[in-house]
Structures are given as structure tokens and as C-alpha cells.
Amino acid sequence: MAERSQDSQDTQQDAEQPRKAGGVSRRRLLGTAGAAGAAGLVAGGAAGAFATETVRKDPAPLTGVGAASRPFYGVHQAGIADPAQTCGHFLAFDLAPDAGRKAAAALMRRWSNTAADLMAGKTPKGDETGVALDAGPSSLTVTFGFGRTFFDRTDLTSKRPDALEPLPDFSADALDSKRSNGDLWVQIGSDDALVAFHALRLIQQQAGNTARLRWQMSGFNRTPGATAQPMTGRNLMGQIDGTNNPKTSDPGFPAKIYVPEDRSGTDEWMAGGSYAVVRRIRMLLDTWEHLSLERQEKVIGRRKSDGAPLSGGTETTRPDLNKVNSDGALAIAGDAHIRVASPASNRGASMLRRAFSYHDGFLDDGAPDAGLLFVAWQADPLKGFVPVQRKLDRGDGLSRFLRHEASGLFAVPGGCKPGEYVGQRLLEG
Predict the structure, then answer these.
(1) What residues make up the domain containing 111?
(2) What is the DSSP string of 88-114?
(3) What is the pTM of this model?
(4) Residue 169: helix, strand or coil by DSSP?
(5) pLDDT in tens, 352-363
(6) What are phi and psi of 344, to 5 degrees?
(7) How do residues 239-275 score in pLDDT, each as one tens digit?
(8) 310 pairs with which residues across the strands?
(9) Domain-located, residue 3
(10) Contact at 8 Å (CB) between 397 and 337?
(11) Is 399 among the domain residues?
(12) Active site residue: 82, 241, 267, 396, which one?
């Protein structure tokens, strides 16, 4: 269902103007060193004011998770090949009836400028929310995409890519149209919940009268440092999830995930971009958790303890799909998830899976409304997600414990240069 990695940190401080709320920028960490700073945090009042003043005059650099940053500008948008962060938000918007191409371009410029500032740890112009004053960028990424209907609303149907054809129906789908698709899509991720919410809030505010929110979903992953050593994450079924995800170092990775940079034709504006399939997948946890450990492992095809394939080895050992146990049965069952989803079982079809778990309370029958916010990235969904999902739909033993409740397909353009905005080649081309 999903897979992951880890990046470098940017500890360079930005020279920012003092802000109203105590004059502390997002790149400054409130007094964490020295007795005076500790006293200010505990005592409050005058001591708290003293601590804030001390930080303003002699700020200590952010370290660790808070200082890590991702570049907004570049050939590709951030949030695709980057490791999935601790907190994630997905949003879809519909353009207002009177908003056309010009209004959409102005919105994308506003959003791009805001995302660039936030990802660099800066305060966007006009932002007085104070939500993330103390924090660094915390690996924030903001990614933008266009849905099929966006091109109709902006009179750009001649530039709509063939790859944005509606996804086929799958037998396991129970899709809610109100939580699916949309004209515009935004993905926000960060390793700090307040930083992620701050970006979410500004994006929603800046939509203004141009676009209205269609749906929003929020998810989470394990916090960096929560395990003794870096390791592949687990999903809400308790399974290690992400072992065989394509890696940026793999031969052919760019060709499978990104639209070629020398793209020509009506969709040349997609050069360096990718296509995102977004699925909200509810896990039937009450049913799943009643299975024995042995049965759960057979459904997945891996040991739950360490993620090793049932054919033997360690987590990273390539599954031996031909291995037979002493009783004559396949070591990895014919309907095991890793067998059915394997590129070897799908003529090499692959995609980069980037997911967040979610929990939105409980349903009327007491079952948890929880599961996976699944995003699949690929250069062409007709060669990536669609053939794999068709195979899973027909023969995956795991499908009995899942419900696909929302879906969307979005064209995510390549990145932009300073002074430009995401989607400019489409909207001004």
C-alpha cells in the first residue's frame, strides 16, 4: 500500500523582520538553552517576556527536525520524491462559477509565493496568524495539482492531458463523490503539526472568492526519532508498509515517476511533472484484528515482526514468488498482497506510493473510521496505478479488509523558478 526515506537539513538562518507577536520569526527557537530561558518558560509573566527578549537579541539556531527544509523551486515540485512527513493534509477546491483562467492564475501565484516563503521558514507577506512563530520549516512541502474539470472551467480543454482520463470503476470502490476529485488539489506535509496547520490555514484563506473548499483530509505518520533506529513505517494494521517503494537511485526512476522534461505537444506544460492518484482507503480493523497472526501474515505475504517476506530473508530481501514450502503450498500465497502488487506480476508497472494514516473517529456501529490516505505518483496513471489496481481488485486477499471511499486524479506540473508560479506554463502559455 505505501513505501518511504530521509533527507538533508538546511540550517541556514533567514534574516527576517521582527514580527508583532514578540518579534520572533518562524526560524527562531524559543529559549531552550540556559537557566534564564528555562525560568522564562516556567515562570511566565515578566520572566516569559525576558526570555522572549533574550531570544530576539541572541537567537540560538534551530537544530534537528525543525531545521530540516525542502526547496520550493526546482525542476520538480516538492512532496513527490521526498519522504512522507509526520503530518499531512490533502485539500481539493472547486473554482467559483465566475472565476476563470485569469483568476486561477492569480490564485496560483498567491499560493506559490506563500508556499515558497513557508518552506523556507519565512513569514509570508500579510500573515499575522502567529500559528507557527517559534518553528522552523520542519520539512514542510506544499504541492499543487489540477483536476480534469479545471480545464473546462478555465477554457483550457485543448491542453488537458490524455492521462487525465477518468479512472475506471473498480469492484471494491464505494466512492463518495463529495470527497472525490476537484478542480485544484493541494498536498501539505510537515514533521510538525502546527507548521502543517499553518500552511493549511493560509492556503484556505488565500483561496478567497476564487475557489471554495470541496474536501479536506488529514493524516499522520510516525514521528522521526520514535524508533531506536530509522526504519520503514507501519500502517494501522501494524504491518511494515513501504519496503519495496521505488527509490530515487533506482535506474529508470525518473522515467516511471516524472513526465519527461523535454515534453512537447499540447501537454508540454507538464514537463517535469507527475500524476497523483489519491485514494482514501478505510481499513476494516475490527475484522482484521480478529485474524490470527499467521493468517494476517499470509494475507500480506510478510512477517509482521520485521517485514521479511514469507519466502525467507530480511525485510529488503526480494520475495521469491516461486518458493514452495515442505507441504507443497506456495510460501507466498497466490492472493498475498505483495504477490499481486509486485511489478513482476504487473508487467513491470510501478508507482511511487506516499501515504499517511488517518483516524476520523468512529462510525455508528462503533467501528473505527481509520485507514490510509494513499497517494500514488507516476508519469502515466494508465501505466502505473490503473493496471496494478485492476490486478488488486481481482485477486488481492487484502481487499476483503479495505474499502476505497474517495478517489481523485490530478496533473501535478513540474516545479518553477524564482519569480514564477506553479502552473504558469499552462495558464500563460
Answers:
(1) 66-429
(2) EEEEEEEE-TT--HHHHHHHHHHHHHH
(3) 0.85
(4) coil
(5) 999 999 999 999
(6) -65, -25
(7) 999 888 999 999 999 999 999 988 888 899 999 999 9
(8) none
(9) no
(10) yes
(11) yes
(12) 241
